[in-house]
Task: structure prediction
Amino acid sequence: MGTGGIGITVGSAKSRHEMNEDGTTQSQSASTVGSTGSNVSISAGGQTHIGGSDLIAGKDLSITGDSVVIDPGHDRRTRDESFEQKSSGLTLALSGVVGSAINSAVTAAQSSKEESDGRLAALQATKAVLSGVQAAQGAELAQAGGDPNNGMGVSLSLTTQKSKSEQHQQSDTVSGSTLNAGNNLAITATGKGKSEHSGDIAIGGSQLRAGGDTTLDAANDILLSGAANTQQTSGKNSSSGGGVGISIGGGSNGAGISIFANVNAAKGKDKGNGTDWTETTIDSGKTVTIKSGNDTVLNGAQVNGNKIVADVGHDLLMRSQQDTNKYDSKQTSVAAGGSFTFGSMTGSGYISASQDKMKSRFDSVAEQTGMFAGDGGFDITVGNHTQLDGAVIASTATADKNHLDTGTLGFTDIHNEADFKTEHSGVSLSGGGSFGGDQFKGNMPGGVVSMAGNSGHAEGTTQSAVADGSITIRDKDNQKQDVANLSRDTEYANDSISPIFDKEKEQKRLKEIGMISDIGGQAADIARTQGELSAIKTAKERMNSVTPEDRDAAKTQWEKANPGKTPKPEDISNQIYQNYYNEAFNATGMGTGGAVQRGIQAATAALQGLAGGNIAGALAGASAPELAHLLKSTEGDPAVNAIAHAILGGAVAAIQGNSAAAGAAGGASAELAASAIMAVMYPGKAVSQLSEDEKQTVSSLATISAGMAGGIAGNSTSGAATAAGAGKNAVENNALGDIAQAQSEGKTLEQKAAEYVEAENERYKKENCGGLSAETCSAKMYDERREALKGTTSFGADFVPVVGDIKGFAEADSAIGYLAAVIGLVPGLGDVAGKSLKAAEKALAKGDLESASKLINQASNEIQSVKALDVGSYKDLKAREVVGDGLEHDHIPSFAALRKAKETELGRKLSPAEEKALYQNATAVEVPKDVHTAGPTYGGKNNATQVQNDAMDLCGAVCRDTDSLRKNMLERGYDPKLVDDAIKQIQDRNQQMGVIK
Result:
């Protein structure tokens, strides 16, 4: 049937895949009626219905009926898919601790090759390499301890597995009717009939355009509404399986026979619903006239014309529609197993369980309902009541051309909001050892608990507004609201939000969290096993010089544990050895509950908290305060805190140093990790002063750091394997020697790296650019930079941007190769800068050097994403933002105060163009979302009184806002110097802009 790990399975496998699709596609069969050079007139004694069709008139277009209905066509689709798989068979595979660890390594490596996502593939590769480290430790442990089941063996097992998944999808996509008139467009509902909708005009999700005037004339009601596009999805899945078998293992002390069994089960479900709207739009080159005998309703509609005239017999109701999306999913899994060894008559077991949940909700107005008049203004008369719900009546005309005359007027805002939350929780407890096939659970007993997730929130308000002009309320006795509270700002009335939930991205994030938890578990086992090996070695050495005091203490302990019995010499000897072993193992801090174990747990939890984002960038850019913030839970225990700092600090060093500048330190991530770990664990000590146990501690922690760095920063399996594989060997054979060399020269590794970069620059000038053209020199430079990036994990601060015009095709090709190499190191950049590079390649293939040059520069700029405490114009920060990075742009001083101050200075309101320019060019700072919301001018805190006071004293406003910024950033562990530098930039820029003196 197949293989798994290093082994072979003989058996049967069955699978069944069913898919049923059904649907209608009306958009492909739409009717078209028209005349390209003359008039078109359609008239009916009863209802005139235009459904999913196109009408075209070169001149005038008129439609008449007792009632008129214009609606969209619908493309409806239903898809049901199911997949079932069953397998069973007899498997012959490697067993024992070493064999099972090798199986796990091979299985993880195979999964890495099959994984399409670069980050997940890198994490799988890291798991594979760390399994190899565990296998080597297992062999060493078998040799030291003499347990045959810790060595290599073979197993024979009977396994079975089955799985089933079902998915249902349903969608309805509208395709609106279109009416196009070169001159005038007129739609009339006469209302001469007796039907329920006699005299009504109803237009849904369709588009009307006229070069001249547009007239809607209904004896009864006019309804202009949006049409819903809907999507529904639901699914469920389940799986279960298990196996039983026997294994025979060999070691230095003979052979051992074990039996084992394991079971697993999983299930899940998901459900999603979404609706977005296709608005009805009316666009007229001249005047739009709307006349209804009764009500006129705009519900998801936009009316545009140079002038708008409306005569509504009863009520005018205008409301914006919100796009909505909801998603909910849950996945659970459990697994358990056990083994029993004959001879030693000992057993072991494991159990694990995990649960992933995702929940998302999104509601926001995309297109605001409204009447939008041009320079001709609007003249609207309503017989009874006008109601605006998140809708606007706008105009670019002067106020004297805008008139609204109504009995009463009501207005409300629409709240836009998006929330999502994802959760991963898992627990794994194991007695250590092999449980068949690739079910290796570590060399030592242990447990891993993981709880992590992500969440997001965004909100905005779609306000009702009427442009400046006259508003006449005739029925003052029944007027409920104060018209003075109605916004007159129609340009910025729609504060809509964009979706913040990405299902695929969050699914990957949860998978990353699970894998990081696995890697953390492997790291913990590596540390425990190293503690075991160290303790065995120490205990054996001490047995050569047992003191009388130790012998007496051992005899007393044995007799207390075995009352009424007389100890034999070997009993006392075994007790002495056990005492020495326990003392040595506890001293390492690598056992369960020890400082090293808790440090690993803290570091793993910190990385899980960063999962899904640019972990490499977050860590590589993290200063000591940021690491302190990530590891805040360990502050109560200095030893644990130091070890967690050492592990993460080692990963940071690996990420930052594994670049062109790493040549001075040997170019291997584990070597740089060792330097950072030594600085935390043994400050001030030279390599020659480290004891053997201290060297082993550095070696173990560097292996863990390098593995983590490779997994989290790598976007390829080779990067992960290089980083993790270098760990133990590189540290012991290279890193400590490099560190010693740097220490002997009185320099740090960073200074050595800086010397390397300077030397490279000089070499370029002397060897590459003498007598060469600028293009040739640039091409060589980019080629060498690309080569220097090979095998690295992050570009960090060493990225050199591409600036200026590309002078030739060779230079362009080299620059593209260099930037592509950078993108390969940074998860997430491929979606942004990668598109620009692909476009540049296409332009270059067509011979368009100018376009290629622009696109290359664009890709380079996109790589330089915005960071916390960056200061600049709002427009600049906005252009460099990265969606989902948790950062926001904060105006200092607030834009409301700036606008008020400017209007006071000019003695008039700003024009829309002036207001937009002020908003875009005002000074802003990039801050985490929670810092922004904690600021003194966020949301409702910036009331009219505060805006007025700030406008009168902008200098005081800047001081207050920057004081708040300093306090909030320092509370979150940011470097005080970086914060003060940012505040100085804010003050300097406001002075340069003339905001403050």
In short: The chain has a mean pLDDT of 74. The longest helix spans residues 503-542. The chain has 24 helices and 35 strands.
